[in-house]
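Q: Hand in one record:
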Amino acid sequence: MMRFILPALLLCASTANAAPPDLKSKTLAETFTELLPGLGKGDNNAKDSPGQKWQDICFAIGAPGNEKLRTEACTLMAAKLDDKTPKSARLWLLAQLQRIGNEESVEGVAGVLVDPDAELREAAVRVLANNPSPKATEKLTERLSKVTGPSLDASGIKAKVGLLNALGRRGDATTVSLIARSLDGTGAAEVAAAQALGRIPGPEAAKALEAARAASKGAVHNAIADSLLAHADRLLKAGKTADAAAIYKELNTKDEAKPIRLAALRGTIQSSGDKAGELILEILTGTDAGASAIAVGQIDSLSAPSLKTLAANIEKLAVPSRVLVITAIAARGDKTQLPIAVAASTSQDPAVKKAGVLALGRLGDATSVELLLNLMAGKDATAGIAAESLAALPADGVNEKLLAVLEAEKAPAKTVALIGILERRKATTAVPALLKAASGTDSGIRTAAFNGLKALATPEHLPGMIAAFLKTEKGKEREQAEQAIVAVAFQSMNTEKRAEPVLAAIKDTAKDRAAELLPLLGRLGGTDARKVVREAVAGTDPALHDAAVVAICNWPDISMNDDLIALVEKSKVDSEKLRSLQALIRVNTVLIDRTPEERLAALGVMKKAMELASRDEERRAILEGLGNIRHLDTLHFVVPYLDQPALAQAACKGIVDLAHSKMLRDPNKAEFVKVLDRVIATTKDKGLADRAKGYKTAP
């Protein structure tokens, strides 16, 4: 029985009764006659070439529903395979017949098997290898029977190998005896014969291989063994376990090459049924590392009784093998083997204990929480691994148990660890507990709680987070809390809604507390928030004024540009001026998509900032940031600063970042080349110089 599918039929399998090709009112024969002289000439793959046109026709008629046209086309092509047709055209015709040919083309193609040209002969073999007609097998076997004998030259051997490969691909059991006659040597043809018999299913081919195996040597012997493995694998897949096991047993000997022996061992385990566990134990108590690796790799597919046998005897194994088995059982994910993980996690051996703790993360359930928490509290290397396993534990009820433990926990360090685990578990049910923890008296717990809320809370939890925020200490802790609230608020796509909870809190709290909320409000932005902040900065309350300045500097977009410029120009506090200038640079040089008009506006603001800057440090920051305002006018503004030693390197950075934009660089290539040459000559940064060279020569 043949084991292949005609490619064209496979290609068209989803096309039911496809439409015939449009032949422009001509018959198929007329079209073929017209195109034939151009086949193989020039570029056959060109869209309007004769070769491509004929190939398109062949693809179309190869679809279901066009059988009459397909037969006619193949008959026409087969009739033109003699030496009256140029070689290039014959090769093109053979390529089409390989896709759509059937019985009607066998005779014509078979005639090419004896052509003087080797390339044509090889193409004909490929065509017949692919032809579904039994007659194709007859022609190949007929030709193979004539390409024999000890006196074959290199060309003859190559031809024989091609024929054997073709018959192997066809998988026809009627060819076994002929192919088997080529197993009596040590050359390439003998290897090809062994490989062909491995592709042909059935007992006849397997018996032929077994008969030749004992006397075979070298590459041929290995090819025979490999083909027998293929037969055994097919038998095992078909449920003929005993027959497969017999072949595996024959090949699992020290006389075979190691890859063959190990493959046979794999098959032996797979065909051992409920005895596989015992076999794996036996292998793992040995010293063959390759065999042990094969054995461990089969644990995933063991039957329940085999796995039970292996688990019951795991203590008999040496530590390295025990670790491998525990790891493999964990990967299998069979929760009935949880006792193995539990026992290993309490082992005195560090390697076994580590494997057991990791296994708990795959096999454990809610009952494992207490054990993992105790392991986390330990002082050895498995404490961190226990936390990883607890975070990964997939069972139901784990989050609830962790929350109960969190509620009762008094030790700050353990509380922080529990919050971290709940965060990594994406335990959204923990949000109420985290809000409570964020309002507590311990700064470490508050910080951990806000980190958890940042990942788990939603905008509806913002009022609670803001209330907890007011209990944080100024400095790093409060800044982290602000970032958490901003992250949750920005889940809302409505930019005007984000600040509402903070605005409500400001309205409902005392003035001194309102000042604490203004910097947070500035991070959220929005029309109403802008109004509140401007009122505060213009007011007479110093605390509110200072907090409003911070809010303006925290603003997320350019809507506070005028306010920032005013602060830089009018502020009498140097630190306030500096902070405002830095904020102005930040919001205007961020890399975002902008219209040309928006880029020019941002450039105008940066020109103003350059006028207001009083230190080279700020000027350098402006020049570097200008690389993100991608406009030709920006380039013109930055270039003169190449002549100022204190600012030249920052100008180089800004120019190279501008050059990164292909949309800006390409239309202005000549100008960029000149400027990049100046950058290369000026910069002391090799990486920057290399980037400049790359942009200069980029197509």
The chain has 42 helices and no strands. Residues 33 and 428 are 74 Å apart (CA to CA). Confidence is low (pLDDT under 50) at residues 1-16.
